[in-house]
Amino acid sequence: MLLLKIFLASALIVAPGVLSVSVNFPYESVQLNTADIRRNPALRYGNPVETPDPDADLPHCRAWPGSHDWPAADEWTKLNTSLNGALLRPDPPAAACYPSDARYNATTCRWLLGQARQTGFWIDDPLVVLTQWPQGSTCPAVMDAKGNCTRGGFPEYVVNATTAKHIQAAVNFARNKNVRLVIKNTGHDFGGRSMGGGSISVWVHPLKNIEFIPKYTTDSYEGMAVRVGAGVESWEMANFMAEHNITVLTPATTVGMAGGWIAAGGHGGLTSKLGLGSDQVLSINVVTADGKFITADPDTNDDLWWALRGGGPSAFGIVTSVVMRAFPPIRSTSMSVGFSVNPNLPNTARPTSNATSTAGPRLGSSTLTNVTAFWTGVKQTYRHCLQANALGGFCFSYIYPLGNSSFTFTHSFSVPSITPTELTSLIQPLFDSLNTLGIDIPLPRMPPNMTTIPRPPPGAFQGFRGGGDAPINTRYRSRLFPRANYASDALYDRTWTAIRHSIEEGGYTFHGIGYTPTREVAGPLGADSAVNPAWRVAALHASLMETQPAGGMTAAEARERDARAAKYLDLWREVTPGSGAYLNEGDPMEPNWQASFYGDNYDRLVEIKRRRDPWGVFWAQTTPGSEGWDVKVLDGYPGSQNGRLCRAWV
Ligand SMILES: Cc1cc2nc3c(=O)[nH]c(=O)nc-3n(C[C@H](O)[C@H](O)[C@H](O)COP(=O)(O)OP(=O)(O)OC[C@H]3O[C@@H](n4cnc5c(N)ncnc54)[C@H](O)[C@@H]3O)c2cc1C
Ligand SMILES: *[C@@H]1O[C@H](CO)[C@@H](O)[C@H](O)[C@H]1NC(C)=O
Ligand SMILES: *[C@@H]1O[C@H](CO)[C@@H](O)[C@H](O)[C@H]1NC(C)=O
Ligand SMILES: *[C@@H]1O[C@H](CO)[C@@H](O)[C@H](O)[C@H]1NC(C)=O
Ligand SMILES: *[C@@H]1O[C@H](CO)[C@@H](O)[C@H](O)[C@H]1NC(C)=O
Ligand SMILES: *[C@@H]1O[C@H](CO)[C@@H](O)[C@H](O)[C@H]1NC(C)=O
Ligand SMILES: *[C@@H]1O[C@H](CO)[C@@H](O)[C@H](O)[C@H]1NC(C)=O
Ligand SMILES: *[C@@H]1O[C@H](CO)[C@@H](O)[C@H](O)[C@H]1NC(C)=O
Ligand SMILES: *[C@@H]1O[C@H](CO)[C@@H](O)[C@H](O)[C@H]1NC(C)=O
Ligand SMILES: *[C@@H]1O[C@H](CO)[C@@H](O)[C@H](O)[C@H]1NC(C)=O
């Protein structure tokens, strides 16, 4: 069956027999062919139908360097030849920090610990991911590091993927040779899902193409769209948006547009208006576990079309590109509110600073001594966010513990297509109420036009790599709080008793983002996807953040920290029965993660996974079907990727 679509610059390839494939970019036209396979039989395709029992005749563990089934050097060389030299064996950059290592170079190490982050070095590195602990702390970047730098949870080989063929060859080789396969885009994943010891990594980062489609028409959509390569980052899309005078839903600056973000749902500033990242998708090109390159869209491969949008990263295939919805430019107006509490100050203490950590004009901040007033004000502010949500807006906030029972609260409201005056009227009642509580912040007074975030001129983002990203050890543990928790005073109070306890007693930094990506907002396409149903009724995506010392923590300490945090998360779970958490910013050690991250979509996802990938080629922790395997961790860190991947019962 042919697909009837209007494609501006795309070819329609009908592969022999089965597949209708819409090629978005030239790099997808370069595909594995029979001559390649004749020259290197290790690249032959898989046939899921011939493998009815996923557990039959399959090895207990993936190959491991030195194991009898680890491919010999000449097999890697042959693979490299098939890949036209795109097989890399990168060194961990931090090797430069180890005086015991031949690669030691103090100048390089200092640069890594300093300026490297501003240059985008870490995002562009084929090996490194931004969260350190899954690697096993065997080569953290610290000055004059003790011990030896070893590969640990880093992959053995990396495929520098610049064509669909590279990806197909990697998948087929890994499957046929029993080698663990991982997929890396930007390396943002907080749960070690873009790395793995003893693996071959498919690095999709180089796939940077973007293309504007002024009119994209299918049975289910008519409007503007963009084709997005698998390696495109949010800031690159921002440049593109500026150049083309369009808006596309995007995450934070260096997060990938088409990798883990879409695969687990994905949120962005306009999520209450446009839905989640996965709700933007119109079509997906993907290499499946059998090595085939296919298109999944509402007409074709409907199982994968459903699963790839929210059903978990690195589970169903390697996405090469997507088509996403685009809109006329949408500008948002933002306002911040912030206040602090320090019960140790003399009662006469007055505002110390108007500064808040969020962007936009400042309404003021104040330091209180009255703890009750502080938390009452916090609760009122979060509840007021529902009014911004109703207009398609969102709220972005932190509560930072400062020690000695002092806390700072920063919170911004951001609403699309609204004038500063309108936003002021929206926020005014909150300020009146805060003032009544004795929270002495000035009433909203602002220059009328200052708040509109201007559309950046074309090219304004060029060279800006965003974020200052470098590897750290942030542990996210989170929960989606349903709108229902805001409905009655009693339940809202219980909700905040739980949250407050985790901040006051737990001492964690609280991060809350107020979003309402309902089914209505998602639209018919988005609503019928594998996204965690908990998102659809949520009002707050809330996290407890903990930044753990790099390399300075033993595995036992890591386990203690997990156990401690679990106590506080349990309080959150008690007040949100039946809800869940956002995988990408959730705890990789989440209990009952199947229900938490996927809700009642889980069984269908596992069914699709078994059918499409009976070999278990794709594996990442807390993805559908992943409980059949685990990493035999060498370092004892919970969730570490430093070890051999084996069937769970081994
Ligand atoms: C600084 C920072 C800011 C963030 N901001 C946001 C935000 O604004 N909104 C939000 O929703 N989340 C945010 N996140 C979380 C983010 O969505 C996740 O970390 C997400 O996993 C990033 O996806 P990636 O593809 O960029 O990263 P990676 O770590 O490279 O990949 C993540 C997962 O997706 C898989 N994957 C990657 N590419 C592909 C592909 N082509 N095909 C199949 N699987 C693939 C990987 O194997 C891995 O399992 C943020 C994270 C950080 C560190
Ligand atoms: C793959 O081949 C290229 C080009 O010949 C070479 O530069 C590279 O080092 C090879 N990779 C490996 C892992 O040997
Ligand atoms: C260390 O790295 C710096 C910067 O890349 C380089 O200039 C220098 O030659 C290196 N030193 C050694 C001993 O390799
Ligand atoms: C580090 O490597 C050296 C040389 O290979 C070896 O002698 C030493 O025992 C190693 N140290 C540790 C802590 O493993
Ligand atoms: C990946 O391949 C591209 C295209 O050949 C090349 O330009 C780039 O330098 C390679 N990247 C690495 C890290 O080798
Ligand atoms: C951008 O698009 C909007 C809405 O489609 C239009 O009103 C505006 O004039 C355009 N601006 C530019 C610079 O093209
Ligand atoms: C804080 O804001 C008020 C009112 O806008 C202003 O009068 C005061 O100078 C500001 N204080 C500081 C420290 O900026
Ligand atoms: C602290 O604030 C609460 C809530 O506004 C109020 O009821 C209480 O009287 C205040 N306490 C003091 C000592 O001012
Ligand atoms: C907490 O209070 C103690 C005693 O007043 C003081 O020594 C310490 O510096 C304070 N700590 C912080 C983080 O403010
Ligand atoms: C402020 O906005 C109004 C209406 O949008 C516009 O007429 C006016 O020129 C703007 N003023 C400034 C200083 O930009």
UniProtKB/TrEMBL annotation:
SUPFAM superfamilies, per the entry: FAD-binding/transporter-associated domain-like (SSF56176)
Any Pfam family: BBE
Residue ranges occupied by any FAD-binding PCMH-type domain in the UniProt entry: 151-329
Superkingdom of origin: Eukaryota
Endpoints of the signal sequence: 1-20
Single annotated GO MF: oxidoreductase activity
Name assigned to this protein: 6-hydroxy-D-nicotine oxidase
Keywords from the named record: Oxidoreductase, Signal
Family (UniProt): Belongs to the oxygen-dependent FAD-linked oxidoreductase family.
InterPro entries, sorted: BBE (IPR012951), FAD-bd_PCMH (IPR016166), FAD-bd_PCMH-like_sf (IPR036318), FAD-bd_PCMH_sub2 (IPR016169), FAD-linked_Oxidoreductases_BP (IPR050432), Oxid_FAD_bind_N (IPR006094)
Top-level taxonomy: Eukaryota, Fungi, Dikarya, Ascomycota, Pezizomycotina
